[in-house]
Amino acid sequence: MLCSALSAFAAPAEPDEAALEAELIELKAVLQRVAVEQSLLRDQRDDKTQSIRDLDQEIAAIVKTQRAAERNARKAQTQIEMLTEHQETLIDRRDAQKSLIREHIIAASRLGETGLLKVLLNQEDPNQLSRISEYYRYLSKARMRQVSEFEHTLAELAQNELALIEESSAFEKAADEIALASETLAERRSELSGARASLDAQYATSKARTNVLERDALNLKTLLEQIRRNLIEFPSTLDFQSIKSRKGELPLPLTGNIRHRFGDRRFQNKVRWDGLVIDAPSGTKVTAVHYGRVVFADWLRGFGLMVILRHSDGFMSLYGHNQVIYLEVGDWVLAGQTIAEVGQSGGQAAPSTYFEIRDQGQPVDPLIWCNTKAMPGRKG
Question: What is the rounded distance in angstroms from the CA atom of residue 310 to the CA atom of residue 339?
Fold first, then answer.
């Protein structure tokens, strides 16, 4: 779908698939270099942070498996409902055909061969004799046709019952996979809670916590500068509204309670928020606020599993703390498309989404750019 959208809206009049593929290869190569540079910034000696990262990524894989099983279960359930309805129709048809055949058999048994012969011998009018013979031939053909249709219905009913058994088996398998994924997910989240508590204890002093927050912010800034410096601009033929033209109209990536706003002070007033923290239940869909391209989809210290979209006009939007990411670097994304799910990755105590908008690399207040009127239950 994204590729077709790219061909329809982002390419020149004559789409050059080879050029687009080359651009994607170049984009991924750039992001690989960025990942290498980021690994140098990441403190690999911090076993607790590494443990959180590993658990976040394992949880993401489990959630993807769970979502696939849920899709399979829904598909099987739909098929079961359709097959059950069709089975009821076939049973009604079978019973009606059976009743009709029974009537034919009763009528034939009453008449019998001698009865037919007697009727024919008693007729002296040749025309009447011809009509009676034709009538009995019609009855015989009708009886044979009813028997053939009855046999076809029985075969179709048997095939339908076999399909029902197969879909029921598929549903049970999917249900087992969902249960197993849920159990494993609970175990990993319990482990993650322990790792998070252990990490929090390590940063007991305000100075240590401030240093970590500042380092996380620096890592993000460095990453964004690397992306801006290395990536080519959007094609000039894009047929979409620019993000600048939609100032104040962009949707927020999800509905939830805004716990932290842009510019709010955090941790003893020593660091400020560069975006929004929006609380929502785990698994809530996170959607893109504007058309763009994925330039980062990975784990980043302090932000967990994060998606960064590059838009036109030098804008970027960032979505952090996800429990699972559905896109890869290079994917084109439409406004409103699901890109991730709300989670607690990056060591968060509660499920939320961290959302930023950056203009030329500088953070701007998302509430100036987004329309919050459609957010029920929003808290300040």
Answer: 14
